[in-house]
Amino acid sequence: MIAIKERERCKTRLAEALAPQTRVELVRSMLTSVLEATANSQTVRQIVVISPERDLVPAEIPVLADSGESLNDALVQAHTLLRDFGCREVLVLPADLPKVTAPEIDELVSAAHAGGFAIAPDAAGAGTNGLCLISPRPFRFQFGPDSQRLHLQEAQRMGLSPQVIRRPGLELDVDSPADLALLDEQQWLARLRA
Which has more confidence, 9 or 64? Predict the structure, then answer.
């Protein structure tokens, strides 16, 4: 599951650094990178986007509705639907991981097989930039402030043995103007113009 807000409401913290249309283009470009990395991974069988809109998501990728009220509620609803269809293994990634790679995604998924749960924190070690859950039971997603600690608590509550995976592409999410400086400007300008 790849989660993304309505494009017009994405990355508002970048408003001082980027014009509205440039922010939308950056969001679309980052989503494309995450979709490509996920599609090229060896461990992901199906990609599902969780969003209030389809926007430029390719037609072959299902988009599950997100009312825009709460990311966690949308993920719980999507996870329930996937479990109803027999899915017992789910990977959750945000759409703002511009440097994530297929091998990093595969490593996160593989790590979850060791104890039923793996998490990739952000660079600060407080947020969650990816998680993989292997369980037939409901999971209370905790994205937001201090989400890494809350997700680890939820996994332990479920009796899972969490694995923490730190990889550069999973750690870099773009939330602030300072994060923009970590991107290869030429590569991202070329992507934005493509």
Answer: 64
Cβ of 17: how many Cβ atoms within 10 Å?
A: 16
Q: What is the pLDDT of residue 126?
A: 93
Q: What is the per-residue burial (b if ≥16 Cβ within 10 Å, else e) of 122-156?
A: beeeebbbbbbbbbeeebebbbeeebbebbbebbe
Question: Could you read off the pLDDT of 18-32 as tens digits, one per residue?
Answer: 888 888 888 888 999
Which residues, 6+ apart, have CB-to-CB distance to 143 below 8 Å? Answer: 3, 71, 72, 75, 128
Structure tokens that stand for 116 in this block: 């039923």
Q: Per residue in 111-160, pLDDT tens?
A: 999 999 999 999 999 999 999 999 999 999 999 999 999 999 999 999 99
Side-by-side strand order, sheet with 89-94: 63-65, 49-51, 2-3, 89-94, 128-134, 116-121, 161-164
Domains in the chain, CATH or no CATH each: 2-193 (3.90.550.10)
| Average pLDDT, rounded, for the chain | 89
Cα separation, 91 vs 48, in Å, equals: 10
Question: Taking the CB of residue 80, how many other CB atoms lie within 10 A of it?
Answer: 11
Chain length of the chain: 194
